[in-house]
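User: For my dataset I need records formatted as: sequence, then structure tokens, nothing else. Please produce one.
Assistant:
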Amino acid sequence: MTQPIVLHEADITALLPKVDVRSVLERMFRALADGDAVQPPQTLSLFPRDAGDFITYLGVLAGEKVFGAKLSPYIPGDGKALVTAWTLLMSMETGEPVLLCDSKKLTTERTAATSVIAADALVDAGASVLTIVGSGPVALAHLRYAEAIRPWKEIRIASPNIAGRTGIPEKSAAGCTITKFIDVNQAVRGADVVLLCTSSGKPVIDTAALSKAAVVTSISTNVANAHEVDPAALSGFDVYCDYRATTPASAGEMKLAAASGAWSPDALCGDLPELLAGRAKAPSRERPAFFRSIGLGLEDVAAAVALLAAARGQ
């Protein structure tokens, strides 16, 4: 048996500049659209006595002849919870493990890349104002991926605690000034694209502040039924997601909206495989478009495959 490659956080940091995560994910979503990949539902397993939980993300990528799983535990602590993630990649030919990697940083990258792939597919060509809600590492990763998809005239980063944040650039790579906002809803008004990049378990914006043609993306966290927008607002959106077969059963606002009768998964306009394959309904531009990502195991598998190739090529 060949020993699997083991990559820790420092290894991931060194290898990431050699990996085009967005391109890797776009190929994966097209493979999913073409039936060359399998995405099972993610599962949430609770630890006994309210000691935390872990989410299992699975995926099969037939073209690469690999399957794998990412395990992401949530461990409550005094003041701040501990969240980690590790991905195991295995060969479909030998059944043996080929890679074990720390996925925390890789998860940040694939999350941001997925949001921006969706935003790029949904937003109007003339979009000029970008708002990012959040100011941590995930938000800054979204900025890196988003700054190149349009010739932005204005970029806003909003967070109630942004005054204490470091590492936020003053300008984008293209030279667009980045303005900081404490008032999130003020930053949302008039924006063409709003990328929600928080770990909040409850709504972070007033959806009434959105322009009717805005595109909003939202991500996930381990908090039970986490949602960054009010579930009741879904009926006022053109709704999209990363994968229609699994997301509505896991995304907090979708579960809550469906349970209350305010919205149904049947109202989905499309998912990311359909968007990239040209099979999804286009946004109406008469009301905001909302894209919800829960984070797919296939995203982790695809990113890990690219990372493995980079490690082997060193």
